[in-house]
Design brief:
The protein is of the alpha/beta class. 43% of the residues lie in helices and 18% in strands.
Length: 273
């Protein structure tokens, strides 16, 4: 498809911001924006990441799209207050990464949690009758403990996902796999420490990252502006957002609870403080 847009996009930097937990809605929005960046032929992309991570599959799809876009667009990732776990993974899709000295990053690893309500159900006299096609069909059922074979199955799943994460970081940052494993034990570290470890390229603000992107694209850092791809919101969402500004903590808590419930039992690349 040929876009009937003026060449002005060739003189601007695209900017996409990823905030909060990464899930399907994030993936859909970011992939759509990346497609537009390619079609409008922006010379550079500033990817602002302020996220503790999220679901594995969604993070992988965004990363893969960024890797494909690298062939046509200069991509700089800017880590904000926090860019951990899945946020780090997505950042590996950029050619260069900049973080603030105090950015919280790292948390390279995988976590999977289920809920065991067995004792509560016993107290209220509730039990379930389960008919299944195989012994592991109800793995992570909330009304019983995991069996040892089930724990082994889930641990193998976690280990495979972890290896995928480590391999991607090693390849993107030109590090040995064992070097990455030495700090990929779930720990968090600052942007300054990330620079020493080789996880990021430079320390600086988002403005510094914008100027760097302009230079890489052969544009004047003093004159080049960003074209922001903002999240689309319905009229109802905008209305509720305005009403909820005074209760932003409550709204954030509700959003996080919704994410927790929807991802229970899934392997996550997520920093859980």
């Amino acid at each position: 498809m040929i876009w009937p847009f003026k060449p002005r996009f060739r003189k601007q930097i695209a900017r996409i911001e990823i905030t909060g937990a990464i899930a399907s809605a994030t993936r859909k929005r970011v992939l759509e924006a990346l497609k537009t960046v390619e079609e409008r032929r922006f010379p550079a992309l500033l990817l602002r990441i302020d996220s503790p991570g999220g679901t594995v599959g969604d993070s992988q799809e965004i990363y893969s799209a960024l890797k494909r876009l690298q062939q046509k667009v200069k991509i700089i990732a800017s880590f904000g207050n926090i860019s951990a776990s899945g946020g780090v993974y997505i950042g590996m899709g950029a050619q260069h990464i900049m973080a603030n000295p105090g950015t919280i990053t790292g948390s390279i690893g995988v976590i999977l949690r289920g809920n065991n309500l067995e004792r509560l159900l016993e107290k209220i006299g509730v039990s379930f009758k389960v008919i299944k096609s195989g012994p592991y069909k109800d793995i992570l059922a909330f009304d019983r403990e995991l069996t040892e074979p089930e724990k082994n199955i889930l641990q193998e799943l976690i280990d495979i996902s972890y290896s995928q994460f480590v391999k991607t970081v090693a390849e993107a940052r030109n590090l040995e796999v064992e070097t990455v494993r030495s700090f990929a034990d779930g720990r968090i570290f600052t942007g300054e420490q990330a620079l020493q470890l080789g996880v990021v390229d430079r320390l600086g603000t988002e403005e510094d990252a914008r100027r760097w992107a302009a230079e890489l694209a052969g544009l004047d850092p003093e004159k080049t502006r960003c074209y922001n791809f903002e999240e689309r919101k319905s009229v109802v969402s905008r209305f509720l957002s305005e009403k909820a500004q005074a209760n932003s903590g409550l709204v954030g808590g509700i959003n996080w609870l919704e994410f927790e419930l929807s991802t229970s039992g899934l392997p996550l690349w997520l920093y859980r403080p």
